[in-house]
Amino acid sequence: MNSSQLNISKVPSELKFILDLLKDNFPVESNLALHKEIDWHTFIELSLHHRLYPMLYLKLKQLKTDTVPEFVLNYLSNQYKRNTLKMLRFSAMTEQVSRLLADNHIPVILLKGPALAHQIYGDISHRTSGDLDFLVPIDKLEETEKLLIGQGYVKDDYIKTVLNDWKWRHHHFTYIHPQQNIKVEIHWRLNPGPGKEPRFNELWERKSRSKLTHFPVYLLGKEDLFLFLISHGARHGWSRLRWLVDIQYLIKQQLDWKRVNLITRIYQYHRSAGQGIYLAKSLFNLELDPKMERLTKPHSAKKLAQQAVFYLENRVNLHSDPVPEDVANYHKSHLFALRSMQQKILFLMSFLYPYPEDKQLLPLPRAFHFLYFPLRPFLWGWKKVRKHALS
To answer: pTM for the whole thing?
Structure first.
């Protein structure tokens, strides 16, 4: 094996077939013999797990062969149509929420959803979306919440907080519309903290307008979008290939790679960027611009990319609780490895800041919450002793 390539020998053959389908100009038909042992039920499961069934359906439909069973094409066709209708509905909701906030003088940037699919792929049917993600200034959160509740949304109030740690430990609130079965996430950060990020005003200055809707809907500028998609995918271990396909297609667009290099360094995401680009290059045979290649030069880029193959080998799902203990431990270790030295120091220092669990362990009146700071090491030790005793 070429030393520059990743070792994917333990990746399921069905997933290798999916990777081949996603490569540009790859002669899939002439290489179908390599994939003759495919379990098509597993193929369908993986297409759903990785949220890639729209693109895979379009790819398989183009093959001039009867190797693909009819039931596979029929199933993917139905899923493709359902997703298209869902994305059309989401497009209407995107415009509705954007109009609601704009009419109340709240600047808003759409992070994902149909507008992202349209910008990256040129067609909303090519990408799936489970919810709508909007970014607003943190000082507009309360007003945004009132507006959504006025429209029938209900807040999923799962975030526990003490001493306002939600502002930097978390990054979004979730709202669900019971009648319309729509989930909206209102972000005030791109990612959970601790970590340095561009300010909303900076992102707003560099925003781009979507061509999907008549009413103005705004997305992140391309370089900021790259930073967001890279950090988001890396944070989830690239456990769904859809996030990496987003990177593959975004890379093909005209990005200012000098600026990408700059902002990934400023905000300490250069290790995640190197990992993501290395994965896209290796798994999709992607040709890289020399300026982009610089991010993959450090040894850490390949090492971190190889670590991410674990998630592909084991079909890891980080979104369904409970996550198996061995997977959870691997993921914690991998996330720490992704951090720069500066981020690691900040992350370790964040343990000195009180947690909501401290308030549960030792309830104190609000006026005395400041005492959780000096008590933090003792409460941490107490919690560990209790956990060990219970186990």
So the answer is: 0.94
